[in-house]
């Protein structure tokens, strides 16, 4: 196991070892941000995304795969399991409405008084896409990658979600390897969403229900794509909080949240019945993808490394063997990265993730109360 102590070591892992015409070495980092509030996860992702372009360009590339399981720990605490120390972070208000960068409160939120009275925080994120309501019910999965990670096809905002589905997720559905598959045959891509696809025999038509919403951002050299997979649907709560939006995919057809949304569990292989099993299987498949990528590329090599923050230790140990290196990192490194991003000359004014009040006004980071990893 190796440590990463300074920002430069993260973004330029091979800076002291020039290529000299040999194989280019790159690193894909995996970070488990379970126990992070969604707001701080987005701040970390925005920082990594923006700084990667500035600090890694024309050098050995880096990329990031980030997971936040907002469901499991919160569910355990609510069921009465004793939660102490860091686990108390999930007992504190984690209810939030996350708007896309151009989203407006009045277009998506049904009742500002209800939101305020129930201490639901509102976040405007740095990526596009629609609005998501979360209350310890989602698996959040993000990719921050250089454009040249994909060699065969040029990536655009218009095709990034389809590429993610075909390159990252679709290989996880393999009828020949049922015991190691992640998704079942119902998992599908449709109109920029990840959906549950089924056939309505009575009405003789195909039905699509959304299981994962997507958002993205693009810069000259990097892109970020993140998905909110719904693990559990509290339809009544969604109806209380969110409007049926005017801008929506055609296939929704004004359906209510109950008729439009579906749990991701309906799209998973029967052996994958918990979020932690999903994460373990997902890491295993990313390992396979990197191995395959390295086997066909002769000019560069991707390492698959884990950044272990020592806040989800019991869940991480079982997958250590899948990584080329495991970096033991104090969570303060992420705070330093965020502070560097917000104070660096080239990125000082780029920050786009902020809290909003119930009327859509930007408010300070301290407006909502929650335990913090990087803002205190």
Write up this protein.
By secondary structure, the protein is an alpha/beta fold. The protein has a domain at 24-71 and 92-155 and 215-242 and 272-356: BirA Bifunctional Protein, domain 2 (2-Layer Sandwich). Helix content is 27%, strand content 24%. The chain has 11 helices and 15 strands. A 10-stranded mixed β-sheet has the order 1-13-12-2-3-7-11-10-9-8, sandwiched between helices. Strands 6-4-5-14-15 form a 5-stranded mixed β-sheet, with no helix packed on it. The longest helix is centred in the last third of the chain and has 22 residues, at 275-296. The chain is globular and about 60 Å long. The protein starts with a strand and ends in a 13-residue tail after the last strand. Mean pLDDT is 88; it is low at 76-92.
Q: Short description, anyone?
A:
With 376 residues, the protein is α/β, with parallel strands linked by helices. 27% of the residues lie in helices and 24% in strands. It contains eleven helices and 15 strands.
């Amino acid at each position: 196991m190796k440590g990463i102590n300074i920002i430069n070591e993260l973004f330029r892992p091979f800076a002291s070892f020039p290529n000299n015409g040999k194989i280019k070495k790159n690193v894909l980092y995996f970070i488990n941000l379970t126990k992070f509030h969604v707001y701080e996860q987005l701040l970390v992702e925005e920082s990594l995304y923006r700084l990667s372009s500035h600090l890694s360009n024309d050098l050995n590339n880096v990329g990031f795969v980030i997971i936040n399981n907002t469901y499991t720990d919160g569910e355990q605490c609510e069921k009465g399991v004793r939660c102490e120390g860091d686990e108390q972070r999930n007992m504190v208000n984690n209810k939030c409405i996350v708007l896309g960068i151009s989203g407006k409160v009045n277009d998506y939120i049904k009742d500002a008084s209800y939101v305020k009275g129930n201490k639901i925080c509102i976040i405007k994120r740095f990526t596009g896409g629609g609005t998501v309501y979360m209350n310890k019910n989602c698996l959040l999965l993000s990719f921050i990658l250089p454009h040249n990670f994909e060699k065969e096809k040029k990536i655009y905002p218009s095709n990034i979600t389809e590429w993610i589905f075909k390159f990252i997720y679709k290989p996880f559905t393999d009828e020949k390897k049922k015991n190691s598959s992640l998704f079942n045959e119902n998992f599908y891509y449709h109109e920029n969403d990840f959906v549950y696809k089924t056939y309505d025999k009575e009405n003789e038509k195909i039905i699509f229900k959304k299981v994962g919403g997507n958002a993205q951002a693009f810069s000259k050299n990097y892109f970020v794509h993140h998905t909110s997979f719904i693990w559990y649907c509290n339809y009544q709560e969604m109806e209380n909080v969110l409007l049926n939006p005017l801008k929506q995919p055609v296939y929704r057809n004004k359906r209510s949240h109950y008729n439009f949304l579906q749990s991701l569990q309906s799209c998973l292989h029967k052996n994958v019945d918990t979020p932690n099993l999903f994460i373990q299987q997902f890491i295993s498949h990313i390992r396979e993808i990197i191995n395959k990528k390295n086997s066909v590329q002769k000019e560069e090599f991707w390492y698959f490394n884990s950044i272990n923050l020592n806040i989800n230790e019991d869940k991480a140990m079982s997958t250590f063997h899948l990584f080329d290196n495991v970096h033991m990192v104090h969570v303060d490194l992420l705070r330093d990265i965020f502070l560097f991003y917000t104070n660096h000359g080239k990125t000082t004014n780029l920050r786009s993730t902020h809290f909003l009040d119930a009327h859509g006004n930007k408010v300070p980071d301290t407006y909502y109360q929650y335990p913090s990893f990087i803002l205190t």
